[in-house]
Amino acid sequence: MPLFAFETLNLKYLLFYNNEIKTLHSNVVNLPNLEILLVEGNRLTLPPEISLLHRLAVLNVKLAENKLKTLPETIADMKNVKVLTIDSNQISIFPRAPCYLPNLSICENLIQSLPKDINELKKQQEFSVRNNKLIFSPVQLFWLTKLKDLGVHDKKLEFLSDKVENLEFRFLNLARNLFKSITTDLCNCTMLKHLIIRNNLTQLLANTHRLKHLKELSRNLGSLDEQVSHLKDLSKIEASRNALTYIPVELKNCTRVTKADLGNNKRCQFPNALCALFDLQPLNLSGNSISEIIPGISDMKDLEHLELNKNKLSSFSACLYSLIERVYLDVGENEMNSMPAVVSEMKAVQVLLLHHNKFESFPEELCSFKFLKTLDISNNQIKGIPLQLGSLEVIKDLNISNNQFASFPSEICHLSSLETLTVCQTNGLNIREHFL
Question: What DSSP character marks residue 18?
């Protein structure tokens, strides 16, 4: 580590990330005003000088992405430290840490168990141990009464203590473990706002309705049940890549939901309950088997982003035109071959994806989309482009690849705002004469 760094006693921030530093210089203790020490992405192992850090008033210590195998016990004497990050090292034994440390991150190490005295971290508010070698979490972890943010995802946890007593949790991430069941005592954490347990269970926890303040529910599901209707503060539903066939009508009572991801499930019908979620803005229903859009979708006035790709829509539903505020619409990879005239009213659309459908002619209705910036109509059977295409005055990205053009559609040359044009043609369309 360069000596010049220690010649300025007023230095507050010392950042030496992504270098080849193997040791900290002992003179680092001559920086009494140091607040942030960042030595991430180096080659620190365990230099004796690191034990001198407890003499500093440093508030933020980041030693991630090094080759540390342990930490000296003296690091527990760093009473002023607020954040200690030792992610991506080679630590196998959970180290002693300052008892009053509010934020500890020790992800991507080799830790197999947590010590029973971990409850001595009395002021711990954020704690993350993802991607270690843990197979169970000790009950003491839930005795950290100040803990609000806990991440124990991306491991092989099979067991979660059935004595969950922490009532302060705001964020709990248990995703991608091996849980077959989780204690219903988890519902004692009534202040919980974000619960992420995907890639574990197949059913909602009993008493989920007690989580009155829950805003985000992200999990793998075989079905949604009526309990969800009790989650009045719920604002985000993440239930993609499951086997959902049923969505309860009671979901309509979750009127604060603003984002829903139900993509890649087994829905055959557009969920009626969603039409009552008037504040919903992004909605993902891609990768289902929906064949028809219901009229009730017109009630979703604030819907700006809608993904319906990879379904079984045979036509561009006239029901969609009423959503005049929609900005992003993806209906690619369906079976559509025409568009009703009323869609010309959808003037707010900026991104429209119609690729991999069955259009044989370019829908002239699109030429009235005055704010359209991105259009993908590739992989259809279109043979020509209408002259009215020049009305798209702000279009920047156009993809017409793999259609049935006999010659290059010269109408495209009149799009003065165009920045990206994609014309990948499998039948060897000759475009040379138009660009040379």
Answer: S
Q: How far apart are the first and last CA of the chain?
A: 57
User: Could you tell me the mean pLDDT of each successive run of 10 residues in the chain, 436 residues long?
Assistant: 57 81 74 80 70 66 87 75 87 76 85 79 79 74 74 70 66 74 73 72 63 63 62 79 80 87 89 89 94 89 92 89 80 93 85 96 91 95 91 94 88 90 73 49
CA distance readout (Å), 405 to 336, 379, 398, 400: 19, 11, 15, 9
- H or E element, residue 435: helix 432-435
**Measured distance CA(373)–CA(381) in Å, rounded:** 22
Query: In degrees, to the nearest 5, what angle opens at C-alpha 250 toward C-alphas 244 and 254?
Result: 95
Check residue 264 and report its DSSP letter.
S
In this structure, the number of other CB atoms found within 10 A of the CB of residue 95 comes to 19
Q: Cα 207 to the chain's mean position, in Å?
A: 26
pTM for this entry: 0.65
CA-based nearest residue to 267, from 295, 289, 294 = 289
CA atoms of 160 and 137, how far apart (whole Å): 6
